[in-house]
Write a structure and sequence with these properties.
disordered N terminus; 317 residues; two-stranded antiparallel sheet; alpha/beta; 41% helix; single chain; globular; Rossmann fold
């Protein structure tokens, strides 16, 4: 995990490094989309295309010892946190060389050694995990922060409010990051939510901050830094909302602009200012090295053996 802007005296991540991390995620996921129709990937995939920028900024802002818990849309954070790309592709392939021996698939990536403690296919499932970790940090008097990265749809789950309440009550060092792409599968946020996230956080006495443009690599990192620092310093939980855009369908590798629930111009407005597309010179400079890493990861996955039948019930409780 890279040290970033999470504490006093820590060097801010450079635009180049943030861009490289985001581009690495973009190219890896484009490779997943390319391979997926062949049926070599033995897992449903929820791609982060369009949401790579803030994942890079969040990961670069954390300190060693901090912990991250996230959702089934986890490729971006897994890679940005320093997860092994070879193991990720092998896991997607359902191979023995994967993170979980090919059993967990795309929706359950983890890299505890890099601070990514887990992800889950259940909406809102990792919210209380982050809260529990933060409670442990406080009881042990450790200057660490737990970060829950979740989607705007999960804020409608009862567990979200329960976690806000308990975290505020105990003044826990936890930050609830909400990736707000305005969509929950096909349902738009204006048709789902009668509340504003800032007001909901305020009802529990919780600090709130927002990054209005998830594509602003340095801006997200700069906005996240004081939120992390305050929680680390004992000021309790926070909600950090990031406005962003999901380019493709909820699950899978196809577009969904023909489904009628969002306007192509809406997505186009985001894409026209996507630095991974507009900063072509830097992307071209960095692409060869990243593509070599991706090719090696795919080769590793394809060479990794299929798990033996004897492993079927291994690790199953």
């Amino acid at each position: 995990m890279q040290a970033g802007r999470g504490g006093a005296g820590v060097t801010a991540p450079s635009y180049r490094e943030l861009f490289r991390q985001a581009l690495r995620v973009r190219l890896a996921e484009l490779k997943v989309a390319e391979i997926y129709p062949s049926d070599k990937i033995q897992s449903p995939v929820h791609l982060s295309l369009g949401q790579e920028h803030h994942a890079a900024a969040l990961a670069a802002s954390l300190l060693p010892g901090d912990q991250v818990y996230t959702t089934y849309r986890s490729h971006a954070l897994y890679l940005a946190q320093g997860g092994d790309m070879k193991k990720m592709f092998a896991e997607l392939y359902g191979r023995a060389g994967g993170i979980s021996g090919g059993k967990a698939g795309s929706m359950h990536l983890c890299a505890p050694e890099a601070g990514l403690m887990g992800s889950s296919a259940i909406v809102g499932a990792t919210l209380p995990h982050a809260m529990g970790a933060a409670y442990a940090f406080k009881l042990k008097n450790e200057p660490r922060v737990a970060v829950s990265v979740t989607g705007d749809g999960s804020t409608e789950e009862g567990v979200f409010s329960e976690c806000l309440n308990f975290s505020s009550l105990k003044k826990l060092p936890v930050v609830f990051v909400v990736e707000n792409n305005g969509l929950a599968i096909h349902a738009r946020i204006e048709n789902r939510q009668a509340y504003r996230l800032e007001a909901l956080a305020g009802a529990y006495g919780i600090r709130y901050a927002m990054a209005p443009d998830g594509f602003d690599l340095e801006g997200v990192a700069a906005a996240f830094a004081p939120v992390l620092a305050a929680s680390r310093a004992g000021e309790g939980p926070a909600v950090f909302e990031i406005k962003t855009c999901r380019y493709l369908q909820h699950v899978g590798v196809d577009g969904d602009l023909d489904k009628g629930y969002r306007c192509p111009r809406e997505v186009g407005d985001w894409r026209c200012r996507d630095p991974l597309e507009t900063d072509a010179a830097l992307a071209d400079e960095l692409r060869p090295e990243i593509e070599r890493e991706i090719d090696e990861a795919v080769a590793f996955a394809e060479a990794s053996p299929v798990p033996p039948a004897s492993d079927t019930f291994k690790d199953v409780i």
